[in-house]
Amino acid sequence: MRNNFEQLLEKVLMPLEIKKPVRTNRISVAIRKMIFAGLKIVKVAGPVLAVFFVIWFVIFNKEGSAIKIQDVSSAKYNNELVAQIARLIVLPDERPFIATIVDYKPLENNPFFKGAKKGDKVLFYEKADKAILYDIELNRIINVSSINDAGIDYKQ
């Protein structure tokens, strides 16, 4: 009887077969396909995006290179430049925004820049609404105009 009872307990408490979950390769195959599809997209889109950004940089670098803005680190140079120009003309009592012309070709159509050349300086006085074009080599002021009349967007 004891044997029968033990057998009964084994049947009730312990199932005869413990079934392990069946793994299907369908899920792993689907995931693998998605990964490979993503890699294909990256292989194609990566170089395309790289070329796009290089072209974008070249185009916008050329457009923005007509006037180069001076670094703040060159404050001593800027102060000397302002002092040099102050000997030629009375300047407004404010700190100017100074730019250097690096490519005068795009500026040829603007009458303010007539006679300008590479290396000339442009001083912008915002409060006084004044723009001064200065030839550093000849130590001569080429043109003075209001910023609005000159048609200059110096806050690019």
**C-alpha Rg (nearest Å):** 37 Å
- Average pLDDT number: 77
Report the sheet with the most strands, covering strand number, pairing sense and barrel closure: 5 strands, antiparallel
Give helix % range: 40-55%
The helix/strand series, from N terminus to C terminus, equals HHEHEEEEH
Strand content: 15-25%
Number of strands: 5
- Shape category: rod-shaped
Question: Domains counted in the coordinates: how many?
Answer: 2
In the predicted model, the low-confidence regions spanning at least 5 consecutive residues are none
Derived structural class: alpha+beta
The termini sit apart by: 98 Å
* Strand numbers in spatial order across the main sheet: 1-2-3-4-5
Number of helices in the DSSP assignment: 4
Keywords: Membrane, Transmembrane, Transmembrane helix
Account of the protein in words:
Keywords: Membrane, Transmembrane, Transmembrane helix. The chain crosses the membrane at residues 41-60. By secondary structure, the chain is α+β, with helices and mostly antiparallel strands. 43% of the residues lie in helices and 16% in strands. It has four helices and five strands; from the N terminus they run ααβαββββα. It has helices spanning 2-13, 25-63, 75-86, 147-150; strands at residues 67-69, 97-101, 121-125, 130-135, 140-145. It has a five-stranded antiparallel beta sheet with strand order 1-2-3-4-5. The chain is rod-shaped and about 125 Å long.
Summarize it.
The chain has four helices and five strands; from the N terminus they run ααβαββββα. It has 156 residues and is α+β, with helices and mostly antiparallel strands. The N and C termini lie far apart (98 Å).
